[in-house]
Amino acid sequence: MSQASEGSRSLHLSQVTKEFAAFRAVDSLDLDVPHGSFFALLGPSGCGKTTTLRMVAGLETPTSGTIRIGDTDITYAKPYQRPVNTVFQSYALFPHLDVHENVAFGLRRRKSKEVDRQVSEMLALVELESQARKKPAQLSGGQQQRVALARALINRPDVLLLDEPLGALDLKLRRSMQIELKRIQTEVGLTFVHVTHDQEEAMTMADTVAVMNAGVIEQMGAPAELYENPRTTFVANFLGQSNLIAGKVVGREGDFVKVDMHGIVVSVPFDRAHTDGGEGWVGIRPEKVLVAEVGEDIDAPGNHLEGGVVTDVSFVGVSTQYLVRMPWGQELQVFEQNTGRRRLFTHGEKVDISWRPEYAFLLDASQDAH
Ligand code: ATP
């Protein structure tokens, strides 16, 4: 496939807004999804993910804005005129047709030897060759989901939309299907746009994650980038857990800014958005915080904070999770990997904590629109 034709199949949303009566479900959304990428729309219930997907599928018409695939404006095209297919959480298989016929149906009832070959290839891709003559009711939930996927992929849409497709599966099956879906996407090389409220699911599968909140995209990027450098408190809290400590920028030193947190000055990586005197939050992930005995010599360079008290200890196998109350009254979360080389700290014990300055992030209060 040449680069020009790859570009001609990418998905673009420009200033897309959807209002239901006076309620704005999706607000001026801009999105560019390159062809062949795995894109996740992540956000809490009601943030507008499904509405966005339904507008791309043609099941909902935008109040304003345009949707394009390559140069073709599909904003008002009928669903069947779009090079787009959708897999829903409810698989919507035909109960009276067997697996083979369900998948062949995706080819819009064309009958030929060619159809049989394509169906067999697709069933091989989703590893269901041996189930071809079973009816949907004879399959497990995970197998039914694969049939739905095969049926949606068989006419090679430019964009495959997946609306919480794993939502009905139990956790273990869900995790294995996530890996499976990613493998299939890589093999077929088509664009997948996946809607989920499960941050782990989005991060496991997607090349790019867009975090949605109240109809707008708060931040978009590679999973690791979003996790390491959240821009808003919403993103910091929605993707994993964060300790957020109120602070004020009091100076700059090379690549770091100095932030006064309740009278303790720490260093945080500099970011263009930060100005002297600016108020916001210092964010640090629980697994990046070290807990140490009072006065213990910590040789790593870092922000050292004294005067903590352990208020909770939870042993969870791979890690131990502590709550440490700091002198200003806030309880910080600390996740320590269990290597077996250290003793556990106990409830009520006095401790110091520290973290490397480069692991922290600074959230400017003005960046939080919500
Ligand atoms: P969930 O994960 O719960 O499916 P979501 O992020 O997909 O949530 P949407 O289904 O897109 O959210 O809904 C966004 C908002 O728009 C919600 O507040 C919802 O109540 C509202 N909404 C959706 N469809 C309609 C409709 N047809 N009429 C009126 N309001 C609607």
From TrEMBL:
Keywords: ATP-binding, Nucleotide-binding, Transport. It comes from the Bacteria. GO terms for molecular function: ATP binding; ATP hydrolysis activity; transmembrane transporter activity. InterPro entries: AAA+_ATPase, ABC_SmlMolc_Importer, ABC_transporter-like_ATP-bd, ABC_transporter-like_CS, Mo/tungstate-bd_C_term_dom, P-loop_NTPase, Transp-assoc_OB_typ2. One of its GO terms (cellular component) is ATP-binding cassette (ABC) transporter complex. Coiled coil: none annotated. The keyword Transport applies. Pfam families: ABC_tran (PF00005), TOBE_2 (PF08402). Residues 11-239 form the ABC transporter domain. This is ABC transporter ATP-binding protein.
